[in-house]
Amino acid sequence: MRRPLFATALAVLALAAQVSVAGAATISAVMDQGVRISLPAGARDVLIGNPAIADINVIDSRTAIVQGRAYGVTNLMIIDARGRTIQNNQVVVSGPEVNRVSIYQGPNSGALAANVANYSCAPRCERTPMPGEIDSEYNRFSMPFNAYAQRAAEARRAVGQNGQ
User: How crowded is residue 62: how many other Cβ atoms within 10 Å of its Cβ?
Assistant: First the structure.
């Protein structure tokens, strides 16, 4: 009689563990913005399924920041010291909804799809390239931003090499 009771209790515990991992809340992030999350006790490793969609920065043993990188859905897994998944959250990254204007221009010159131009308006509207735009337009506006970020990274490296 004890064996069936023990086996039943073990099965219930295993099912409860699966439900708690599977039932974890969805983390919603906006592209290019961070969301603070609390890490559960016993967390050792924190992993993102697709780092092209979201990134994670662990601040301390109880806090991390999830950053939206691109539109899409991925997952965040938290592993304990024994290698068990103690939390598995879905991470949904979307575009900004506030202070954004998208202008759509119908297809022309044999193009199959409409062109879209995105603007961030706070308080003045400025061109903000976003994924989904035609590559030539996206590159025309994103290249100066990328060059600026590259120059900043080079300056940080130079300061680090000079010991300042």
Answer: 12
